[in-house]
Write a structure and sequence with these properties.
With 240 residues, this protein is α/β, with parallel strands linked by helices. The protein folds into 2 domains: 119 residues, Rossmann fold (3-Layer(aba) Sandwich); 90 residues, Orthogonal Bundle (Arc Repressor Mutant, subunit A). The protein has a 5-stranded parallel β-sheet, sandwiched between helices. 32% of the residues are buried.
């Protein structure tokens, strides 16, 4: 459990390790603690992790699928809906159906136990490298649609003078729409624009984030194109 009153270090990125097996939790935490510029929070239980989330918003989450107190997949779903971190699901199950469920809820990677802390760390490093490479490759010039100014490099969105607070997935979906304003963009194409490029992404996953975007941009900002996907409305000085 995270101590009350502990201050968040704004300059550090954060790793959440939710693992009921003490040996695995300590081994993974030990390795991740050596990452420069990262802060690690180990948790034994799902409830403990969820209680600490308001004070520890993770950039990377490693979650045991079979926690001592609850289904780790439910913990992961909560993490993804609230913070959308890079994520690794650990599981004792090796059947295809469980992998499909894990990846389908949004996990970036699925690792079957037993797995060494070195393997888990290697997978996490690969995910971080891919995210950083994608961010570095984006154009620095803001993408403008109506009253929106989207900075791919800084991952910042402004509507006029107001800065919008978007999750990672909301930002990536909005950028995919803004790069083709007024045009219909399919759900599959939007999924390919975000870092979870798995074909197992469901339409509901994209729909959920579109709903959140509409709440932040305005109900009429994103138009549903029946049978295809969505389109971002355009127009000079447009406010929705």
């Amino acid at each position: 459990m995270r101590e009350e009153g502990s201050e968040k270090k704004a300059d550090l990125r954060r790793i959440l390790v939710v693992e009921s097996d003490l040996r695995i939790r300590e081994a993974v935490t030990g390795r991740m603690s050596r990452w420069e510029g990262w802060e690690v929070l180990p948790e034994e239980s799902g409830r403990g992790a969820l209680e600490d989330l308001p004070s520890f918003s993770p950039d990377l989450a490693i979650v045991d699928g079979e926690l001592c107190d609850m289904d780790g997949r439910e913990v992961l779903k909560s993490l993804l809906s609230r913070f959308d971190p890079l994520s690794v699901l650990l599981s004792c199950k090796s059947d295809e159906a469980d992998k499909i469920i894990g990846l389908g809820i949004g996990a970036d990677s699925y690792i079957c136990k037993p797995a060494s802390s070195r393997e888990i760390e290697a997978v996490c490093k690969a995910l971080v490298r891919r995210m950083e490479k994608t961010a570095a490759g984006r154009e620095e010039r803001p993408v403008r649609v109506g009253d929106l100014a989207i900075s791919p490099q800084r991952r910042e969105v402004r509507m006029g003078a107001k800065k919008l607070d978007l999750t990672k997935t909301e930002f990536d979906i909005l950028l995919a729409l803004a790069q083709r304003p007024g045009e219909a963009v399919g759900r599959k194409e939007m999924a390919e624009k975000i870092r979870r490029t798995s074909s197992l992404l469901s339409a509901r996953f994209v729909d959920t984030h579109i709903k959140s975007l509409r709440k932040k941009l305005g109900a009429s900002a994103v138009r549903t194109v029946r049978g295809i996907g969505y389109a971002l409305e355009e127009g000079e000085g447009k406010r929705w």
